[in-house]
Amino acid sequence: MKVTPETIRAMKARGEKIAALTAYDYPMAKLLDEAGVPLLLVGDSLGMVVLGYPDTTHVTMQEIVHHVRAAARAKPNALLGADLPYRSYEDVDSALANARQLVAAGADYVKAEGGVEILPQVKGIIAADIPFCGHLGMLPQHVLEEGGYHIKGKRDAEHQKLLDDAKALADAGVFAIVLELVTPPVAKEISQAIAIPTIGIGSGPDCDGQILVTHDLTGSFPWFIPRFVKPKVNCAAEIKSAVAAWKNEIGRR
Ligand code: KIV
Fold first, then answer.
1. Per residue in 219-249, pLDDT tens?
2. Whose CA is nearest to atom 5 of ligand 1?
3. Is the pTM of this model over 0.85?
4. Could you give the C-alpha distances from 184 to 134, 160, 200, 203, 249, in angstroms and in order?
5. 86-128 per-position pLDDT tens digit
6. How far apart are CA 252 and CA 126, in angstroms?
């Protein structure tokens, strides 16, 4: 049965942890759906792990749309979301037009980074009946102005802003909020303070769910593995050893 934003919210109400993963194409969306993952994301992390960019600020709408179409062809039961890429939601009109494009490509929901500063865009998207997932904490699209990827919530002002942003997004009607690199006690406090699910990444065990970049979980991008990820399989090594075995085989003929 198709997962809906309501299904995801109900999982928090039942105390059931929510597993979420990135899927950028047809086979991965199909595999993760068959594995029973209820929440999928065509994240702009694809810029690094698929397209070879140094960070997510290079990803365009056209690129995200291309990957959303591919993942949506898997027709997953999972709720399939898409990131609004860098500078695609600077005002309400462009945010809504781009969110509509992602939905037309096959996304069930959209996600964008930020709190009260993007609230008009969030409200505009939700008013158009497009489910929205928030993203707070370390915001990868801000990596250039922040000079790196820093843990959030250590300072009092940061802690308070995270709480205020989470409450504002929840009040605006978002169905879930990704918390990226938020200190675990603050992530726990936010998770307890709002009724909608928090989906953590590098934010400790007390979020309502966890999301990872699938390439990190599967060891498919060995050149950089975030410190908080323990890959469950080493796909890079498996591919190299399969290729070596095949080369050896054709060499013997
Ligand atoms: O871009 C992405 O894949 C993400 C998740 C890791 C949360 O935003």
1. 999 999 999 999 999 999 999 999 999 999 9
2. 43
3. yes
4. 18, 15, 9, 5, 50
5. 999 999 999 999 999 999 999 999 999 999 999 999 999 999 9
6. 61
Domain carrying residue 136: 5-252
Eight-class DSSP state of 197: P
In the predicted model, what is the mean pLDDT of residues 216-221? 98
* Averaged pLDDT of the chain: 98
Question: Which one of the listed residues 180, 189, 238, 249 is annotated catalytic?
Answer: 180
> What is the count of structural domains for the chain?
1
DSSP 232: S
Contact 178, 213 (CB under 8 A): no
Annotation marks residue 90 as catalytic? no
pLDDT digits (tens, 9 = 90+) for 150-163: 999 999 999 999 99
Mutate to test the pocket of ligand 1, among 68, 178, 207 (most ligand atoms within 8 A of CB): 178
d(CA 135, CA 137): 7
44 lines ligand 1 (CB under 6 A): yes
Assign residue 68 the CATH number of its domain.
3.20.20.60
What gap in Å lies between CA 191 and CA 147, rounded to an integer? Answer: 28
